[in-house]
Amino acid sequence: MDPATTTVRPAADRRRELLPAMRALLRVFCVLTALAVLALLVQPGRTADVFAWTIAPPATAAFLGAGYAAGFTLVLLSLRDPVWARSRVAVLTILVFTLLTLVATLVHLDRLHLQPEFADAPLLARGAAWFWTGVYVLIPVAMAVVLVLQERAPGTDPPRRAPVPVPLRAALGAESVVLLAVGALLSVAPADTTALWPWPLTPFTARVVGAWLVAFGVATALAALAGDLERLRTAAVAYTVFGVLVLAVVAVHAGDVGWDRPSAWALVAVAAAIAGTGAAGWRLAPAPGRHRP
Predict the structure, then answer these.
(1) Which of 18, 14, 9, 8 shows the shortest CA–CA distance to 155?
(2) What is the pLDDT of residue 291?
(3) What is the reported pTM?
(4) What is the structure's pLDDT at 287?
(5) Predicted local distance difference test score (pLDDT) of residue 3
(6) What is the pLDDT of residue 13?
(7) Exposure letters 161-180 (e unless 16+ CB within 10 A, then b)
(8) Residue of 246, 293, 249 lying closest to 274 (CA atoms)
């Protein structure tokens, strides 16, 4: 083809892709979530020595670690797919979680290992507390700014070509209602969680657990509303990881769970539903760059 006759497609006809600033921010969050997984999911009984604040019982730390493992999956897959429309739900999920966690951190600064009463805590724990505070002050602000720039970037979103089956959309909608309701209650009334959670939570951990539930509730609601399997795929994989790991946490830390509480069996049922719907969305969604008729 003669270069002189080659035409350049206008920006309006090109797919909007991740900006370098967004990719850099996602890489940072990928590293941060990996560190949190190592501290919480891998060694949940050592938070007094290796984490920003002491978390008990270990089931709580492991549950938060499951959330971070799902967040790591969400970010890693977003980095592998350059199309912004297929990463929008992931970024909004992260933004919601970091904003709610920032609020929880500011409200419960007295529980972090940076306070004078924790002067005898290991250096790693005290350093983690300062690191945690800095991360959750900077990341939400940076993400909000970059999100605005990303939405204003030239290009368009690809058309919706793979509709989400109605039963799957209905299941996602129902799960979203449950996650948002429980997450909001844990965030607003963290001192009274006996009826909502099958093991004891402190107000601080209740709010961070609530932040993960609200974030995934927002993600499922957005996935159901988007109605496109291609845009759902990344979130569906992370959603599956979250459900499977929560079931694993409950099994491994069964001694921490109050099995005489209805909330214990409700948590198992919801986690199983999350894993099932996530796997269904993952299985049905065409891989990036391919379209299933």
Answers:
(1) 14
(2) 39
(3) 0.91
(4) 67
(5) 47
(6) 58
(7) ebebeeebbebbeebbebbb
(8) 246
- What's residue 4's pLDDT? 47
pLDDT of residue 289: 53
Q: DSSP states of the chain as a string?
A: --GGGPPPPPGGGSBPB--HHHHHHHHHHHHHHHHHHIIIII-GGGHHHHSSS---SHHHHHHHHHHHHHHHHHHHHHHH--BGGGTHHHHHHHHHHHHHHHHHHHHTGGGSTTSGGGTTS-HHHHHHHHHHHHHHHHHHHHHHHHHHHHHTSSSBPPP--SBPPHHHHHHHHHHHHHHHHHHHHHHH-TT--TTT-SS---HHHHHHHHHHHHHHHHHHHHHHHH-BHHHHHHHHHHHHHHHHHHHHHHHHTGGGS-TTSHHHHHHHHHHHHHHHHHHHHHHHSPPTT----
Determine phi and psi for 228, rounding to 5 degrees.
-135, 120
Distances from the Cα of 72 to the Cαs of 64, 69, 200, in angstroms? 12, 5, 26
Residue with tokens 């999100």: 147
* Distance separating alpha carbons of residues 55 and 128, to the nearest angstrom: 13
- Collect the ranges in the chain with pLDDT lower than 50: 1-12, 290-293
Residues in Cβ contact with 227 at an 8 Å cutoff, skipping those fewer than 6 apart: 160, 163, 164, 169
Identify the CA nearest to 198 among candidates 268, 245, 252, 275: 268
Query: Scanning the structure block, which residue is given the tokens 């972090």?
Result: 112
Is residue 86 within 8 Å of residue 234, measured between CB atoms? yes
CB distance 70 to 238 below 8 Å: yes
pLDDT tens-digit readout, 182-208? 999 999 999 888 889 999 999 999 999
